[in-house]
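User: Can you predict the 3D structure of SAM-dependent methyltransferase? Sequence below.
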Amino acid sequence: MTTAQTAASYDQIAPHWAEESFNHENGIAQHERALRFAPPTGRAIDVGCGSSGRILMLLQKHGYDAEGLDFSTEMLALARRKHPETVFHHADICTWEFPRAYEFISAWDSIWHVPLEHHAAVLEKLCAALAPGGVLIFTSGGVDAPDEVTNPCHGQPLYHAALGIPELLRLIDRFGCICRHLEYDQHPELHLYVIVQKEVL
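Assistant: Sure. Here are the predicted structure tokens for SAM-dependent methyltransferase:
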């Protein structure tokens, strides 16, 4: 699937993540862990922010000037309604260029929708957008080798891809970052999250 097709799928199911029944604690403990490695304040961006705004609110609570980015028109419409004071960018991370460096970047359950052939370039872009000492948290499939799959989600097709842990760690080092934490946080499900920090030269 292309990112445009995935965005169209999310347009159809955007309200799910904004409903009260959605677990708004999803990913919060993991972000709290990442924030312990990060600078105490600065600029932050939630890549694939979705409609709930829970990660944006956490970052703002910690004193960050936080922005959101998403490729789904409907996701952003809901997010803007709930957080009118927040800056949002409607864009595809594959082609969007970061306007500045950030002390904290979240890409929770988002960049795994990027086509597999673009994964390395997107990871490089995220690492390059970190300020020295900045922290990136992102999720991936906890697989050992590159893989991709399309499965239904709330009646819509959603594509997921992963480079595999060995390649992820190799690229993180190549892109000037250090892996601070790697965890299968929903074991036995293959849901992996990684915390990386930009080297301070």
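The chain is about 30% helix and 30% strand. The beta strands are 42-47, 64-70, 87-90, 102-107, 130-141, 147-153, 156-162, 177-184, 191-198.
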